[in-house]
Amino acid sequence: MVNTYRELLAQGEEKLRKAKVEDVKLNAAELLAKAMESDCRGADFSVSLDDKAEKPVCDSFNAMIERRINGEPLQYLIGEWEFYGLTLKVGAGTLIPRQDTETIVDLVIDKYRNSDSLSVIDLCSGTGCIGIALEKNLRCDKVFCVEKSEKAAEYLKENLRLNGSRAELILGDVLDEKVLEKLSQADIIVCNPPYLTKEDMENLQKEVSFEPAEALFGGEDGLDFYRSITRIWKSKLKDGGMLIYEIGIGQEDEVMRMLIQHGFENVRCRKDLCGINRCVFGFYSQN
C-alpha cells in the first residue's frame, strides 16, 4: 500500500529496476505523469507528488509499469514522443522517432538554410517526423510525406494537425512507381527506410519487437529499399537535387556505392552524435 504519489513513484522505480529496465527514473516519471494526466517536466508535478494517491491513478500506473516490464515501449504507453523539438503522437503501428534520425534533419538544414521555396519529399514517412521537422526549420513551398501503412498514416495525420503543418500526406507504397505520378519534382528527397537484416530481425531487442516489422526489415542484407528507391526516385529530383538516407551501422560503403552507380555526385556520409555513420547523401544531375 502507498499513501502518496511520491511513494507510488518510488515503488514503480523499484519494480522497473528489478526488471532491469534502463532509465528507471525517466520511465516511472513519464508513466506516472500519464496516469495523473500531468507533465512530468512541469513544476506542478513535483508539488503534487505529496498528494494522497487516488486508486484510479494507482491502478493505471501499476498497469503501465507491468506492460513496460513486459517490454512494451515507453513511447507507446504514453502515446507521444519528442523529435527535434516537436511533440509527435506515436503508438502501435508506428516506428518510434529516434535521436539518431535527427542527424538527417541537421544535415539538410545545414545545406539549405539559406534557400527559399524548397520542395521536399519524405519517403517511408511514418509519423512524419522528418518531413514536419524540415518544414518547420526551412523555407519550404511544398512538403510531401509518403507512407503506405494506414495505421501509421493515422498518426501522421494527427501529427500534421498537432504541429500546424501544411505538409501533404500521400498514402502509397514508395516502391510503386505510380506513386511518383502524384508528386512534382523535389529539391530534396529524404528517407529513413527499413534497413534491418534478416539476422537483425532474429535478434531484436524486446522493445523493438513491438514496432512494425514492415518499418524495420530491409531484406536479407538490409539493403533492398536503398536499391529500389535510388533507382525509382532519382527521376523526381530537380537538377542538382539531394537524396539523403538514414542507414544502419556499417551500411555506408554499400549505399554510397549504389548512389555513385546511379549517377549521384559528391556522395558523402555523416556521423550521428555517437560517432556512427548514420546518413548517406548525394546530388543528382538530370542533364
Describe this entry's structure for a reader.
This protein is an alpha/beta fold. The chain has 11 helices and 9 strands. It has helices spanning 5-18, 24-36, 43-48, 55-69, 74-78, 102-112, 129-137, 150-162, 198-202, 224-233, 252-261; strands at 80-83, 86-89, 118-123, 140-147, 168-171, 186-191, 237-246, 264-271, 277-284. The strands form 2 sheets. It has a 7-stranded mixed β-sheet with strand order 5-4-3-6-7-9-8, with helices on both faces. Helix 8 links the parallel strand 4 and strand 5 (168-171). Helix 2 (24-36) packs antiparallel against helix 4 (55-69) and helix 6 (102-112) runs parallel beside helix 7. The chain starts with a helix and ends with a strand.
Blueprint (SSEs and pairs):
Blueprint: H1 5-18, H2 24-36, H3 43-48, H4 55-69, H5 74-78, E1 80-83, E2 86-89, H6 102-112, E3 118-123, H7 129-137, E4 140-147, H8 150-162, E5 168-171, E6 186-191, H9 198-202, H10 224-233, E7 237-246, H11 252-261, E8 264-271, E9 277-284
Parallel strand pairs: 3-4, 3-6, 4-5, 6-7
Antiparallel strand pairs: 1-2, 7-9, 8-9
Helix pairs in contact: 1-2, 1-4, 2-4, 6-7
- Please work out how many helical segments DSSP would assign: 11
Rg from C-alpha positions? 21 Å
User: Which residues form runs of ≥5 with pLDDT under 50?
Assistant: none
Largest beta sheet: what is the strand line-up? 5-4-3-6-7-9-8
Q: Based on DSSP secondary structure assignment, what is the total number of beta strands? A: 9
Strand pairing plus helix content: what structural class? alpha/beta
Portion in strands: 15-25%
The backbone outline, from C-alpha atoms, is elongated
Mean pLDDT: 95
| Helix fraction bin | 25-40%
How far apart the termini lie comes to 73 Å
Characterize the main sheet: 7 strands, mixed
Helix-strand topology string: HHHHHEEHEHEHEEHHEHEE
